[in-house]
Amino acid sequence: MPLADASVLVSAAGPVRVEAASTLRLDAGAVDYALVALYFVFVLGIGVLARQRVSSSIDFFLSGRSLPAWVTGLAFISANLGAVEIMGMSANGAEYGFPTFHYFWIGAVPAMLFLGVVMMPFYYGSKVRSVPEFMRRRFGTGAHLVNALSFAVAQVLIAGVNLYLLGSIVNVLLGWPLWVSVIVAAVIVLSYITLGGLSAAIYNEVLQFFVIVAALLPLTLVGLHRVGGWDGLRDKVTASPGGAAQLESWPGNALSGFANDFLSILGIVFGLGFVLSFGYWTTNFVEVQRALATHSISAARRTPIIGAYPKMFIPLIVVIPGMISAVLVPQMIEYKQAVTANPDYTGDVTYNQALLYLMKDTLPNGLLGIGIAGLLAAFMAGMAANISAFNTVFSFDLWQQYVVKDRPDGYYLSVGRLATVGATVAAIFTAFIAGNFSNIMDYLQTLFSFFNAPLFATFILGMFWKRMTPTAGWLGLVCGTVSAIVIFVLHEAEVFELSGQGASFIAAGAAFVVDIVVSVAVTQVTTPKPAAELVGLVYSETPKEVRTDPEESSLPWYQRPVLLAGIALVLVIGLNLLVG
């Protein structure tokens, strides 16, 4: 099917057929278009206002390290509320039901708390400007170059996914050709990032968080009312294909692809909950950058912890609407019955459109405009986060480190703005690459297993084992990444077969284990860095006063990171037990 005539949205449901643009059109009225236009005015206005605060490279790339924790905490979570979170998880909800909660309560919150309590003191206390820069200080230029290059490539690819989906929504809304929609969407994001840098991205992400919630909460409530309340939803889900298993989160066999209950739980807990989750949340500069923009170590630690609280409840307004759509919208009901009877079935409707069809069927004019603005906000937040992280790593970690050194600060500020333009143009092309994949969520999870899983292994070993050597750092990264690629190739060659996210879980686990084994082995035959060079980088060599905020003991209880993290951990454990 020609790309210009089709759109592909996110699903973890296995191969899906692209949908003809003419199949689905949202019946927006004048008030809806007005609300969307008003949203774009606010977005661009924030970029113009943020421009006034940019006078140095630190202002542009890290907001001058001056933002309050509540702002960066909301931006932290909003930056992740992109294509996968909104469309992908609603699609998973339509297909799998409650097991999708694992992406939040197992695959996100514990790692976010670990980042705030354990790892942020090292990131912030060492005064690094990026995660790759931390790698350079700990392991030298070998690991640094591997990490910086792989991160830069991954961000352009992932930005392309968000941009493609953003263009697809504009295509559905306005009927513009997809390539026009993609370019218009790219220009809007480019405008405010180029103007105001990270501050523009972060303040827009705060706005986008509230717009997303304002869009999805009414959709959930109206949908529940239409389906007969919570009891009505349970009854209809139980009677639908997939049955009552969709109302139980464990063992999640359909999600993991494992028929054996024990292997399914192991795959979810180790593959998703440990390797993929910790690899993403603790080493992904897209997220860490928001915490580095704060004014103190304590605020930096609170950033991901504050973000963990709304993260726990996001599935209630993302997964639940997907489940409602699967039992309320006639097109979704027919599709689920057909694909359950024949997994190879293809049609104009897929799980990918669950949220759009629910919006079309349940939201009146006005609320529909807010819903559309919420989807646009989600995709823009995701893309802007990728671009703002890319321009920092490109400017500081690649250009300044390896190409042009020792120039005035204003030079690197200009490089950052040009890198923003270059990354956006590249994302336009990678958007159409993403459009050629039948399953974009599998595409993203594959990228995470390639890049994030081995990086987490190197980080965690290097942070707590001072003996680990620079050579082990870059060799472990390379071998871990290669092992994940080998697993991917074997799966694509059908040497083994798993549905759902099972292959990504295995690839991530293999990358983590291989990285650890190689790093330990290479360390035995190479020379470590002197202990004096590891202060602020390795736990045992870093004095407590370097990794703590001296004013933290005087803070009120609701601003103490460890206590806040403890409360969040109890809540997420309670949610896991409650849903079961």
Automatic annotation (TrEMBL):
Q: Which GO terms describe its cellular component?
A: plasma membrane
Primary place of residence? membrane
Annotated localization = Membrane
- What keywords are assigned to this protein? Membrane, Transmembrane, Transmembrane helix
Mind listing the GO molecular function terms for this protein?
Answer: D-glucose:sodium symporter activity
Give the residue spans that cross the bilayer.
30-50, 70-91, 103-124, 145-170, 176-195, 207-227, 262-281, 312-333, 367-390, 411-434, 446-465, 472-490, 502-522, 562-579
Among InterPro entries, the record links this protein to:
Na/Glc_symporter_sf, Na/solute_symporter
Give the signal peptide as a residue range, or say none if absent: none
Which PROSITE patterns does the record associate with it? NA_SOLUT_SYMP_3 (PS50283)
Indicate what this protein is called per its UniProt record. Sodium:solute symporter family protein
